């Protein structure tokens, strides 16, 4: 941890938004510091995209004065001085905003100049960004001819080329293959070292692997916010599924220290649950080997987003007006 | 910023094969009209020679050619303006502009000047063809200049209308038909109004072009074009701004 708390790069208060009669976002407040990766987790239609659009100035929040709503980017008011504030934002929307008829180089230079970079600086930033996003080989290609994975990378490249303080990524890994997802997650992690990143997703795994902090959104409200590590106790069910080709009696499995319950799924498959702070898998493995149970597989259980929601709401953490930035002085 | 956006617009236009195709076809059409006019002039020239004060080559060839170009432009401009904002909205590239440090003024003016430069380049074929006549005869440069200026102002007003209609929709085709409807509607109202002092004549850009076409520089006509363009550009800016309010 650095000695001084890093400065706040983005602070949004009381964002509300309605489309027609439908209230889509209810009093959302967010705060982000430099060097932080925040995951905005929620189902499709939870209001993630709308929130991100408001944070990037593409959409205005409802009646700013009345609700006491404000968005500040690096201390600049986005609603009052949008052109100044927006120079510090890099935004990748759900669909990457690509001019398909331009070459990757031309497009990225345009994106950099659009955010106010000088031609010389833009050319330099192009080389760096291309390398960072793995686009060196395709610089001269026309964007429309690239594969979806490359197009997504170009989309990320345009969001980071001007080295913004706040990077907003709306579902950056949707539709990519596993290798590309891994690459992009590594890149996001890297970006999180120098800037602040907000990332929206409906994948729990994504949050666990790249985010420092999580905000969970449901029906346009933030219902839970905490560090990603602490959320994992909601995310990961403490347990695993084992297959044994030569299973012992159930009682023998239940007898292993730390195991709280064993549920047979079939003749050879069992669901083993244990307390969150003890992991009996090591003991189980040694026993299996010694007793000749012929272990075939051991898979940790993964919770779905629904289960996390259910558990978070069950735990009584929500209190209707929940607000993670409540500690702001 | 406006220049950057205008250049991007031009770059996109010129990277599409359809643009080059349209350019080629239009030059062919202009050349066809030009040659037809020239042919008619050569046929009628012996009769002109008997007149005491015969009309010159510029007024008999250039003025009708510019008039034809102005009419063609009315049909053409919507084909080019339709993409300006509607397509950006459909391809979701408008988000890039909305999240960039630009105001709606930058976006609208950048697109306006980008397309205006393109259409002006497209129309330069016409005066270039006419200037080839200078090899054989003396031309009335004043008349040519007033026509060129008039055509440029007319193009600006058409682009402004097209840009605004394009800002209203997500479908480029609808933007094209909408802009065509407005332009043809103004033209039909103009030629349909029988009375000499009918207000319909006043709001038709093509009517205001007639003075330029005859070689008459009227500041009233120029002011009309400027105000007309400004009006639609302001509406377009307003629409882009509303994009942030209504999503």
Describe this entry's structure for a reader.
The complex is a heterodimer of chains A (329) and B (247). Chain A is α/β, with parallel strands linked by helices. In chain A, 34% of the residues lie in helices and 27% in strands. Chain A is built from twelve helices and 14 strands. Chain A has helices at 48-55, 64-67, 82-86, 104-114, 119-132, 148-160, 178-194, 204-210, 228-235, 250-254, 281-291, 305-314; strands at 8-19, 22-33, 37-42, 70-73, 76-77, 89-92, 166-170, 196-201, 213-218, 221-227, 239-244, 259-264, 269-274, 295-300. In chain A, the strands form three sheets. A six-stranded mixed β-sheet of chain A has the order 6-7-8-3-9-10, sandwiched between helices. A four-stranded antiparallel β-sheet of chain A has the order 2-1-4-5. In chain A, strands 12-13-11-14 form a four-stranded antiparallel β-sheet. The two termini of chain A are 22 Å apart. With 247 residues, chain B is mostly helical. Helix content of chain B is 82%, strand content 0%. Chain B contains twelve helices and no strands. At the A-B interface, helix 3 and helix 4 of A face helix 1 and helix 5 of B.
Entry summary:
The complex is a heterodimer of chains A (329) and B (247). Chain A is α/β, with parallel strands linked by helices and 329 residues long.
Structural class of chain B: mainly alpha
Instruction: Report mean pLDDT of chain B, rounded to a whole number.
Output: 90
Mass-distribution shape of chain A: globular
Parts with pLDDT < 50 across at least 5 consecutive residues of chain B: none
The helix/strand class of chain A is alpha/beta
The chain pair with the largest interface is: A-B, 34 and 24 residues
Element string of chain A (H = helix, E = strand) = EEEHHEEHEHHHEHEHEEHEHEEHEH
